[in-house]
Structures
1.
Amino acid sequence: MKTVVELLTDELKKAFAECGYDEQYAKVTVSNRPDLCEYQCNGAMAAAKAYKKAPFMIADDVAAKLAGSEVFEKVESVKPGFINLSLGGEFLKNYLADMAKDDKYGYSNAGKEKTVIVDYGGANAAKPLHVGHLRSAVIGESIKRIQRFAGNKVIGDVHLGDWGLQMGLIIEELRDRKPELVYFDENYKGEYPKEAPFTISELEEIYPAASAKSKEDPAFMERAHLATAKLQNGDPACTAIWNHIMAVSKADLKKNYDNLDVTFDLWKGESDAQPYIPDMIQKMIDDGIAHESQGAIVVDIQEETDTKELPPCIVRKSDGAALYATSDLATLVEREKLYSPDAYIYLADKRQELHFTQVFRTAKKAGIVPQDADMTFLGFGTMNGKDGKPFKTRSGGVMRLQYLIEDIDKAVYEKSSENRSMSEEEAKNTAKIVGLAALKYGDLSNQASKDYVFDIDRFTSFEGNTGPYILYTVVRIKSIFNKYAENGGRPEECSIDTAKNASEKKLMLSLVKFNEVFESAYKDNAPHKLCQFIYEVADAFGGFYHDTMILAETDEKKKQGYIALLGLTRNVLECCLDLLGIRTPERM
Ligand code: ARG
């Protein structure tokens, strides 16, 4: 469906042309003065110069042409030359009725289906998930859903950090703790056990212990480096331990991501890219793209238009080791081979910007991806505590994601404990859904690139622009619906009517913006734009609900119009929440 702005612009184009003015001046926008009008056209101001006429004369001409139009309830020309527009009741009603029939509520994808890889999550195997990974998971999940809704084929990949020094550290720590294990017997020739020699809780404790030890004990660090190198060279014992680490860690990560309602199509990682590295680097050298510098192999990425100096991308260290960039480049080799995507979107902390500039430029230069490949890095800001510093636990450590979620569920549970009419079990489950909404909405309602303050009290509040407030709105609508049905009404037979009062019209005006807002959220990879929209709709619903007797309305046709409007409001809100990765409970 065309957006309302497009339809109105079409109307204005006709009028401008009929008055003898060029159509290019007919552009309509949503009003920035909603107290004066709903939409506006400022084209007469620019046209005035071209036609050497006073702008208000042009605005007057056009407004007079539009006088009889069904589309508008009111067309006003105001000095010095604005055209103020208010939508006609029938037009609005028909537009909403069409939206209600459409499974995408009026959004239609103009472009052709693209294959898009979204690289997000980015957890590091064997290390606990912390709040730093939360943003990647939450924003990435939403981006993935938005891309899918837009009609693209989307592949979400968690891209685990599973090939670094942490593996060597764990192997050596395990050797110190359990030297009797067969993995450490040099003469062992048999098969390695299928069962992992540790549980997830042990693993969670082993890594931090090993990491701390390595900082104090250079000999231990040296061993960890050696073990990492052995693993990377295919040593069977190290590989066997690595497989155990991966199995135990992945199972735990899956559980954590499940708790966040975040799902991936691919569970690949840096390790999957390793086989591609030797040929990739050799080709870069043969093609003259990469060269030697102080024993390392590097690719220059500086471009003429750069305003600052960018260091080259190191693809191999002087000791022969691969780096983070090498893994990302080799991952691109694999992704091109397996999926030949049309676009890539990466989510990571914005401090990784240089890394991604290096990787994208090198990949294009080396022909790993096409010259004009569509590659986006979405760098997100830091989640800070109320003190403005990166969020920490009370004891100053890095907050584990699991505890953060537990805290938020508890806060929601306690807030809703007054006048609770549901069973304990339902209350706990509801608190989980609402808590997660509080967390995700608190994050997504900010522009991703900005730092934001994690404030449990504010995020879990049932008032203001928060997840709980939005969910509460949806639940309220659901309950009106249920009551209507319980009293014998048939919501599915209701159809939208023309607005009866100002607050009903306001709700309608907010809803019709959906396709335009979605397009903009999609184009800019900006979930926060959906949040702004949701809040506007929820707020407009609040006004409507306050001003209108819905179920008590005695005029049956009017009542049916209300119910149909509420149905669409609920559907649009639930659709947007789903695009944010947020579920809604039945009751709250
Ligand atoms: N594992 C990385 C980290 O914890 C994030 C990975 C981001 N994705 C990528 N393809 N480099 O910082």
2.
Amino acid sequence: AQERYSDLRDQPATSKCGTTTRLLMNAGLMADLPSLEGSGAEGVGLFRTELQFLIRSKVPRRGELAALYARVMQAAKGRPVVFRTLDIGSDKVLPYMKPQDEPNPALGWRAIRVGLDKPGVMRMQLQALIRATNGGPLAVMFPFIAQFDEFRAARQHMLDELEREDKLGHVLPEKVEIGAMLETPSLAFAPRQFFEMADFISIGGNDLKQFFFAADRENERVRKRYDTLNVSFLTLIEHIVARCEETGTPVSFCGEDAGRPIEAMCFAAMGLKTLSMRPSSIGPVKNLLRRVDLKEVKTVIDEARASGAQSVRTELIDWLGRSGW
Ligand code: PEP
Ligand code: MG
């Protein structure tokens, strides 16, 4: 599939209306890095750092992590890389972590909740990231933020580590961006100050959708009941984009749905200018984005919403058909 789209690799995802969508890739393992060149990704929008922890039998050491993150940054050759701090718990259980006896792990002690309650590993990770930059820029985001205070506290850990590294005589990154993943519906309704404080926001659509529809993302039977192009979900996305626009906060979407062409087209029409996806999706998504006028897509979406449709998928597919697809 990659080959079919190779002509597009160095072309921008510019739609007929003139809007260019930035297409980034998701990664987490060293094996993903060659895709940075092959896929035409403009950078890494989500580096899932927990994957490095999941493939080991014990907690990696700081030096090891710093070397690894430095390799990722080098492979990116100046393109942006957004590192997400450890997102464990729920479906991602570390072999060396005491199993938690929780009736509902997806709603349990996971991700930033672990990071804030037991900050040792997260802080070590932040130190490793700072050292890995070797003076270059750094973008870090925290997973599973559900309320403003969690972001404030996580961000403070980063600021403390920067101060500590400075005192230890390490060179600091030239620029540090601290962002939040928006993957619980509550965060979409946080105070304005949260959006002001966040340097950027990345919508984690896999979890956001799971919690919005109360449907387990791992459970096909219930997951498939709820279309991502459901008007309620799109209205939530629209709300998030509007809140980010109010404060000038850059916002992207990094869940699996960003890699599905019709979904990606829909998100772009709702105002998302950055999408991060698995590398093999970049070609197909770019191909569709380049052929459509996003203003027309938005009109189709708005008309479908006004008609009382549950999802805008049928209307979009019909419209694509009428446009010669
Ligand atoms: C998400 O929830 O959409 C996301 C990108 O994070 P993960 O799939 O790793 O939970
Ligand atoms: Mg998630």
